[in-house]
Amino acid sequence: MNDRYDVVIAGAGPAGAQCARDIAARGYDVVVLETEAEDEFPRQSNKSTAGTFHSMMSAFGIPDDVVMQYTDSVVLESPTEHYVRDQPGAVLEFADFKRYLVADGRETGAEYRFDARVTAPIMEGGEIAGVRYNGDEEVYGDIVIDATGPSAPLAKKLDVVDLKRENHAIGIEYEFEGIDIDRPGFADLRDAMMLRLDHEIAPGGYSWIFHTGEDTAKVGLCYIQNEHHSRYAKDGHTIDDYMEHWLETDPRFSEAEKIAGKQHRGSAHIQKPGQLHTDRFMAIGDTVPTVDPLWGEGINKCMQSGRVAAMAADSCLKHDDIEPTAENLAVYDTLWHRDVAPNVDNRLLMTRLLYLAPNERYDKLMRDLERLDDDTLAKANKGNFRAIARLLELEDAPLLVQLAKQHLDLDLRSLV
């Protein structure tokens, strides 16, 4: 095996694999180090709901054969209300999707090493020069990229990321058959991706049903383990307890059965990234973190972060006289904030406000969504304060005061 490449990537998730596809397509030598064994991949890392939209499918050339079900709408539910919006999307078979990215990257010229657990950066002259994996094995690169997710063995040791415990979100998902997809009294979930705001089911978070055809669906919930969760949580309840509670109390699941071998657990951090790169190094995907804070969409965001990192790498590698210093890789930071996660501050504030609200306000929110026009809703979703204000009422003043206090506390903690 070679021991020197233009780019070394740790992690074969959507971010790392897409970055490798783009870098190899530009003619550079790239190797991806993946912890899992190839014959089991991705058994350990098959942790995404895999709901996405056509913009991702077309932008990254994803084939139809990794799609479980194309959807026509997004449904938002509260305890007693719901809102339906026409929005074409796709629910992917996440394992097939990840295997496709690897196979396509290899055809383009990327090299993959499985059973390769990254442990530490190799430093020379104060800069990263390569990666140590499996204890004593080494590989070197002009640029190193960490795409390992929250474990972040390289980014943490380079002080590029500082993932906070209070921003740690956990999730659980099962695939079911026998679900009553069009149950009277509920929204029709045929060909739909549904997100539910209900603290009885997911305190300080949300739950979901993603239709995957006929009477089957992906069903899960997640929440951030912070004060929003503690505010509404039941003493001693685990995420499994909340899932069982939902399954026992929602009539749509009365005849449902879990599909064997289709259980997934995952985690991510919902916070604003600080540093994204340093000399000869970039962090991408959930290492940063990149997941959308409001609705948890991660696939498109991770793929985009891999793509803009490939652009930044190319901007240095194509010139013999330009070193990939932090200054010269700064285009990654610029593209990340412009194209991957614009208005990230506003969307984080929206997320905190949303999960502070009680169930009664969620019911009112569904009615508010019905009265506003599509343009206003689109602007609010992008973090436009004027549009967000149209969703607020006088009764929300106490929530805004609590949000301001929490925001101040977070700022003060960051200074300590």
TrEMBL record:
Q: Which residues form the FAD-binding domain?
A: 5-305
Q: Name one GO molecular function term.
A: FAD binding
Q: Which Pfam families match?
A: FAD_binding_3
Checking InterPro entries in the record gives:
Dggglyphlred_Halo, FAD-bd, FAD/NAD-bd_sf, Geranylgeranyl_reductase
- Name the domain of life: Archaea
Looking up PANTHER family in the UniProt record yields:
DIGERANYLGERANYLGLYCEROPHOSPHOLIPID REDUCTASE, GERANYLGERANYL DIPHOSPHATE REDUCTASE
What is the protein named?
FAD dependent oxidoreductase
